[in-house]
Design a protein that fits this description.
Keywords: Amino-acid biosynthesis, Arginine biosynthesis, Cobalt, Cytoplasm, Hydrolase, Metal-binding, Zinc. Its main location: cytoplasm. GO terms for molecular function: acetylornithine deacetylase activity; metal ion binding. It is found in: Cytoplasm. By secondary structure, the protein is α/β, with parallel strands linked by helices. The chain has 8 helices and 16 strands. The protein has 2 domains: 254 residues, Aminopeptidase; 115 residues, 2-Layer Sandwich (Alpha-Beta Plaits), CATH 3.30.70. The strands form 4 sheets. It has a 6-stranded mixed beta sheet. Strand 4 and strand 5 form a beta hairpin. The two termini are 30 Å apart. Bound molecules: zinc ion.
Length: 385
């Protein structure tokens, strides 16, 4: 099989549904996308490994590798996720699964975030003389980035994956992004005892307990802000936001149950263990005083913060080739997990984050040729050294 044209690959990726969603009625396997990618990379002479996720059956990660002269260490990893978010029914003015060219744009679900990136990579590789490469070039395609990042959490299953550098092709308009905060969402649930409001001592008021809990959480928030600082961010400290609270039903009943949802954004370099140590340490005295009353659980797998040193060779190369300065981002990516492979990792790809997760998602035709050229040059500069 020979590699189809850039636009054919782009269209086929968009046409293969790969929605990941916590709502099972939306959730789709990414196998169709993985199968297409595997075939295309094999046609370029890459060896391909596909792993079904242990945490999520029916979802797959793929690693395509071209290792010149059997060298497996070093080189460049280009990474991306194969899944998309669901589409807003009724808000798309076009078929989300049909790549449509109009107004100087290519519209389609995943056109920017980020199935299209794989078409860019394949095209850049087609134009490369692979025989000239001296270091490995690898392409990683993950599952379930939009929900749990389950795919990125299983990268250690690929043996011998030790690149020097990684680029995650999320849409950044080809500007290198080198840091973002992490993200956790916790639920604190207070289980009190109801009773008639005329005798508060007859029950345990969950709202009263929650008041104490929130007091402790605000202290944790202050401790984090005093202890951690990163000047690369507009908000240079870790944040904690109380986003949802609900408790009780009637004014004349002792409130038996109260639930709080809080979002935290740890800084890069702040270990998740440190955050959870602060959180649980703060609530522990209350829990000891009121056994079985206060429950804390994570509402999703936490994502750590991430930063790449700004003087890293891959940052300098990306800045040189694209003319953009490195910046922070205010969204999370798979970068902390990719970086755990031991490689300096940046986030940089065609398309704009403003179009991600939006109806009528698109990339512009004008950015196609320059982005391809920049990817091509990066591959050559890293792998042909
Ligand atoms: Zn994305």
């Amino acid at each position: 099989m020979s590699l189809p044209s850039f636009l054919t690959m782009y269209s086929e990726l968009v046409a293969s549904p790969s929605v990941s969603c916590l709502d099972p009625s939306w959730d789709t396997s990414n196998k169709a996308v993985i199968d297409k990618l595997a075939g295309w990379f094999e046609s370029l002479g890459f060896s391909v490994q596909v792993n079904e996720l242990a945490a999520q059956r029916g979802k797959f990660n793929m690693l395509a590798s071209y290792c010149p002269h059997g060298v497996t260490e070093g080189g460049l990893l280009l990474a991306g996720h194969t899944d998309t978010v669901p589409w807003d029914e009724g808000r798309w003015t076009r078929d989300p699964f049909k790549l449509t060219e109009a107004d100087g744009r290519l519209y389609g679900l995943g056109s920017a975030d980020m199935k299209g990136f794989f078409a860019f990579v394949l095209e850049a590789l087609r134009q490369q003389d692979l025989g000239q490469l001296t270091k490995p070039i690898r392409v990683l395609a993950t599952a379930d980035e939009e929900t749990s990042m389950a795919g990125a959490r299983e990268l250690s299953k690929f043996s011998d994956l030790k690149p020097d550098y990684a680029i995650i092709g999320e849409p950044t308009n080809m500007a290198p992004v080198i840091m973002h905060k992490g993200h956790t969402t916790e639920c604190v649930k207070i289980i009190g005892r109801s009773g008639h409001s005329s005798n508060p001592a007859a029950g345990l008021n969950a709202i009263d307990v929650m008041h104490e809990v929130i007091g402790e959480l605000i202290k944790v928030r202050q401790t984090m802000a005093e202890k951690y600082h990163h000047g690369g961010f507009d908000v240079p400290y870790p944040t904690m936001n109380f986003g949802h609270i609900h408790g009780g039903d009637a004014a004349n009943r002792i409130c038996a149950c109260c639930e709080l949802h809080l979002d935290t954004r740890p800084l890069p370099g702040m270990r998740l263990d440190d955050f959870y140590g602060l959180l649980h340490g703060a609530l522990q005295p209350l829990q000891a005083r009121m056994p079985g009353v206060i429950e804390i659980r994570s509402m999703h797998e936490p994502i750590p913060g991430y930063a790449c040193p700004s003087d890293s060779a891959i940052v300098k190369l990306a800045e040189e080739l694209t003319g953009h300065s490195a910046t922070p981002a205010n969204y999370c990516t798979e970068a902390p997990f990719v970086q755990d492979l031991g490689c300096e990792t940046i986030i940089m790809g065609p398309g704009s984050i403003n179009q991600a997760h939006q109806p009528d998602e698109f990339i512009t035709l004008a950015e196609i040729a320059p982005s391809q050229q920049q990817l091509n040059q990066i591959i050559r500069r890293v792998c042909q050294a």
